[in-house]
Amino acid sequence: MRFSPLTCTGKKTSFNSIVLGRKCPLSVHDGGASEQASRLGFLCTFWRTGSALRRGVLPALLLLATPASGQTGRFKNIELCNAGSQAAADSVITGCTALIDAGAETTMTLAIVYSNRGNAFIQKGEYDNAIRDYDQSIKNDPEYAKAFNNRGVAYQKKGELDLAMQDFEQAIKLDPKYAGAFVNRAQANFDKGEYDLAMRDYNEAIQLAPALAAAWNGRCWIRAIHGDMQAALADCNEALRLAPNLAAAFDSRGLAYLKMGQWDAAVADYSSALRLSPSRASSLYGRGLAKLKSGQAADANADFSAAAALNPKIKDDFARYGIN
Q1: What are the pLDDT digits (tens) for 115-163?
Q2: Hey, which residues does 28 pair with through a beta bridge?
Q3: Distances from the Cα of 187 to the Cαs of 119, 179, 196, in angstroms?
C-alpha cells in the first residue's frame, strides 16, 4: 500500500519525511476517510530555489533585527516551529503560535509559520484547524506552493477529494517541479478510480525526484493492481532500496506476491510491514489471505478479525484489487 499524504514543513529536510497517520504527507500524511486515503502523502520540504525563506526555513539570522533581550525567546520559538515531525506536535504549535502572537514577523515568514503549525495540527488529526492555518499561510503568500499542497493533504484526510485535487493542482501550477504534489495528486486520482492519471503522476514524480520512495511505492501499488507484476516488484524493490524501513512498500510488495500466488513471500512482506506499522489493516488482511491459501486457517482468521477491527471495509478494498 502507499504512504500517508506527503506534506511539507518549513524545515529543510528530505522528501522522505512522511507524516502521519499522516506527515511529512503525508504526509504528509496519514489517517483519512478510509484506508486508501491514509496511505500516501507528504508534508514536504524544498519548494523552489532562492532565499532561505523561499525554501521554507525560518532563518535564525532574522534574530539580528530584534533587541538582544528578545533574541533568546524568539530563537527558541523558531527552533520549535521548524522542528516538524521530529518534535511533539504540541511543541511545534507552541513555538509557531508564539511567533504569530508576537506580531513582529514579515508576511513571508508568517506564511511558513502558519503552514508549519498546520502540519502539526495534521499530526494531531485536527484537520479543520490545519485548513484554517493553511488558509492564513496562503493569504500571507499566495505563491507558497507548499501551503496549497499541505491544505490538499488535510482535505484528502477529510475525504474531500475534489478540494484536495484543486489544491494539488494549484501547487503544481505554482511549482511544476514539485514531486511531492504529483505524488499526492496521484493518490487523489487513485481514490477517484482514475488509475491512468495516477500512473501518469507517479511517472512524473519519479522523473522529477528519482530518490522519492513514495513515488516508486505508489507506482508499484498500481502496477500490482493492474497485474503487471514484474514491473511492480521492480518498483517496490527500488522503494525499499531508497527507504529500507518503509512499511508501505513491504505492504505493496506483499500484494504483488499475493497476486502471484507466492504465499510465503507475501506472508514475509506483510509481517515486515506489520513490524514497522502494527496497525496497518491492509497488511493484516493480506497476510490473512496468504495464510489461508497456504492452509493456516486459524492464523488467517485471527488476521482477518484484527484487520476488520481497524477497517471494517478492508474486505471490499481487496475485492476492488481483484482479490477475494
Answers
A1: 999 999 999 999 999 999 999 999 999 999 999 999 999 999 999 999 9
A2: 26
A3: 19, 13, 12
In 3D space, the residue among 268, 218, 277, 266 whose CA is nearest the CA of residue 242 turns out to be: 218
133, with CB counted inside 10 A (0-12, 13-18, 19+), is buried
pLDDT at 8: 63
- For residues 280-308, give the mean pLDDT: 97
State the Cα angle at 17 between 286 and 111, rounded to 5°: 130
- Residue ranges of E strands in the chain: 6-8, 19-20, 22-23, 42-43
Give 115: exposed, middle or buried? Use CB within 10 Å, 0-12, 13-18, 19+.
buried
CB 243, CB 213: distance < 8 Å:
yes
Query: Which residue in 112, 125, 130, 115 sits closest to 55, CA to CA?
Result: 112
Contact between residue 62 and residue 41 where contact means Cβ atoms under 8 Å apart: no
Q: Is 245 exposed, middle or buried (0-12, 13-18, 19+ CB in 10 A)?
A: exposed
Q: Which residue has the higher pLDDT, 130 or 66?
A: 130
Contacts of 43 (CB under 8 A, 6+ apart): 5, 6, 7, 8, 9, 17, 19, 20, 22, 23, 24, 25, 26, 27, 28, 29, 84, 85, 119, 122, 150, 153
Q: Over the chain, what is the mean pLDDT?
A: 83
Domain residue spans of the chain: 232-324
Overall residue count recorded for the chain in this entry: 324
Structure confidence by residue, pLDDT tens digits, 196-231: 999 999 999 999 999 999 999 999 999 999 999 999
What are the distances in angstroms from CA 321 to CA 194, 257, 259, 292, 317?
14, 13, 9, 18, 7
Contacts of 27 (CB under 8 A, 6+ apart): 3, 4, 5, 6, 7, 18, 19, 20, 40, 41, 42, 43, 122, 153, 184
- Take residue 238 and report the three cell numbers written for it: 527500488
Out of 1.25.40.10, 1.20.120.1760, 3.40.225.10, 3.40.190.10, which CATH number does the structure's domain 232-324 have?
Answer: 1.25.40.10
